[in-house]
Amino acid sequence: MSAEKQIPEGEEELLFIGGKQLLGQKQAVGLLTKSMASGRLAHAYLFRGPDGVGKQLLARILAAAVNCGQAKGMAACGKCSSCKKFALSAHPDFEIVSPEKGAIKISQVRELIKKLSFAPYEAKMRVVLIEDIHTMRQEAANSLLKTLEEPPADNLLILTADSSRTVLQTILSRCQTIPLYPLNAEESVEVILRENSEIGPKVAKTLARLSEGSPGRALLLHQQEIVPFCEKVVGLICDREKTADQYAGLVLQTAEQMAELKEDLPVLFGLLRLFFRDGLVHHCSPELDGEGGKYRKDWNSDDYFVKLQAIDRAEKELGRNCNRLLVCEILLFTLQK
Predict the structure, then answer these.
(1) What is the total count of domains within the chain?
(2) How many CA atoms lie within 13 A of 207 on its CB side?
(3) Does any domain span residue 190?
(4) The domain that contains 117 carries what CATH number?
(5) Per residue in 132-149, pLDDT tens?
(6) Which residues pair with 130 in a beta bridge?
(7) Whole-angstrom Cα distance, residue 158 to residue 148?
(8) Which of 126, 48, 136, 116 is nearest to 94 (CA)?
(9) Is position 167 within any domain?
């Protein structure tokens, strides 16, 4: 797959690299396209947005475009030697600096500065991607400041940061910030299915809703297998055939498994909230439900509101560091009623 997909003039530009298409982010692409057209690219950019919305992919697309002699805006030709190397993440003039054990260390910054003192191997512009700059400590940031302010010629620095995390003001003041935003539901589902073809459309839709426009986070949730576990919990909640003693034993066992999720427990609560919200919609307007969800017919709208409130209460109790196991046990007994 080429780094660019040619389309008729006047239509929206589609950006590809390494077989992956950048979805959404029209504002970011527009800002960078204007800078390239005017020949006024900044020396350092900060791509700031939620995790998993395409920051690294946009950096790779920009790197390919600035080094392609036949690029059309942000779209590289995808055919020249430079484009092919960028598409394979094998270009010698594309450097990536990632956190080591949760932080970007001063030794990494010093090694980068040393590399920047040499001319690019073959590209017009060496592009350096520094990921998760919010993990950089003050000592490492101080070492990087002069390079950010006046990088050596023929070098472009791209920094990324989670929009919910604090970035040092000294870093912010030396970069042009390019904001990236969550994807819409359709775009999120498309990315999820593209990255993992084994995920079915129904699960992809659930993950997209839960991840709030971050396909990267959705894929991480899938790896943690929280969705199938939630389906198990829902099956328990909706089971009306077991005796009280049988159900009590299963609740205690399932609550123990829930408590073992630890910091991922709020994610499970989020999935359960989606289930009960969908159930409420189905109860009030059955014609709106196209998934054939597994809902109990003996629950009315008041029951659904009570269960949603129970989930909210459980989340608040977790925030107060209440016993996780006890919180899960009480929640499961409440949800089954």
Answers:
(1) 2
(2) 30
(3) no
(4) 3.40.50.300
(5) 898 888 888 888 988 888
(6) 97, 159
(7) 10
(8) 126
(9) yes
Among candidates 305, 289, 292, which has minimal Cα distance to 337? 305
Residues forming beta bridges with residue 16, ordered by sequence position: 21
- In DSSP terms, which residues pair with 46 in a beta bridge? 159, 177
CATH of the domain at 259: 1.20.272
In sequence order, the β-bridge partners of residue 238 are: none
Read off the pLDDT of residues 173-208 as tens digits, 9 standing for 90 and up. Answer: 888 999 998 888 888 888 888 877 788 888 888 788
5 part of a folded domain: no
Helix (H) or strand (E) holding 31: helix 26-38
Q: What is the DSSP secondary-structure string of 139-151? A: HHHHHHHHHHHSP
pLDDT tens digits for range 31-70: 898 888 888 888 899 998 887 888 888 998 898 888 888 8
What does the block give as tokens for 27?
A: 């504002």
In this structure, are 177 and 235 located in the same domain? no
DSSP for 252-313, written as a single string: HHHHHHHHTTGGGHHHHHHHHHHHHHHHHHHHH-GGG--S-----TT--HHHHHHHHHHHHH
pTM of the model: 0.68
Q: Are residues 177 and 309 in the same domain?
A: no
β-partners of residue 48 are: 161, 179
User: Which of 156, 181, 206 is the last residue before a domain boundary?
Assistant: 181
Q: Is residue 114 part of a domain?
A: yes
